[in-house]
Amino acid sequence: MISMYSASVPVFLQMLGSLDALLVKAQSHAQEKGIEPDALLQARLSPDMFPLARQVQVACDFARSVPARLVGVEVPAYEDNEQTFVQLRARIARTLAFIEGLEPSQFIGSEEREIVLRPGTPKARTISGEAYLLAYGLPQFFFHVTTAYALLRHNGVHIGKKDYMGIY
Fold first, then answer.
1. I need a labelling partner for 81 at 20 to 30 A (CA). Which of 53, 58, 111, 132 fits?
2. Sign of CA dihedral 168, 135, 139, 66
């Protein structure tokens, strides 16, 4: 049986490391090709989707909020004011530092913890920690990381599956 820690923290660490490396490649690509960085940072796959910068912010939001809620600690609040690759990478670094500070023992019993989605709204819903991680948190996180990857790939950054997977 896999622990809630093992099913979450190492996954977030791996994929945030990948996302950070993708941003390094994107910044280098923009410099090498003479592309204004904002052209990549504000790129969207569709007009009704978030741009790259927001995809990175939301990926970080899920990477820190999911484990925080599972262990019952306050979710660190970040302002959504990053406008450069350097600032986005700093957000990833802060998120990594928070996650790395969580201990496996804090996750014991978290599969049964009640997690309230959308608290205080008519759409509030309570689910178990296990369902929160596996059916909600991880899919949301991967959606935003994958969309960031797709935006960069679509805009000519030379990246592939190995870049997406990162170090494991």
1. 132
2. negative
* Domain 4-165 CATH class label: mainly alpha
d(CA 145, CA 166): 12
* Burial class, 132, CB count within 10 angstroms (exposed 0-12 / middle 13-18 / buried 19+): buried
Unique residue bearing structure tokens 């450069």: 84
Q: Which residues of the chain have pLDDT under 50?
A: none
In tens, the pLDDT along 48-76 reads 999 999 999 999 999 999 999 999 999 99
Domain boundaries along the sequence of the chain:
4-165
**Cα separation, 33 vs 20, whole angstroms:** 20
Measured CA distances, 131 to 67, 106, 142 (Å): 13, 18, 16
Give 127-130's long-range contacts (Cβ < 8 A, gap of 24+). 129/4, 129/69, 129/70, 130/4
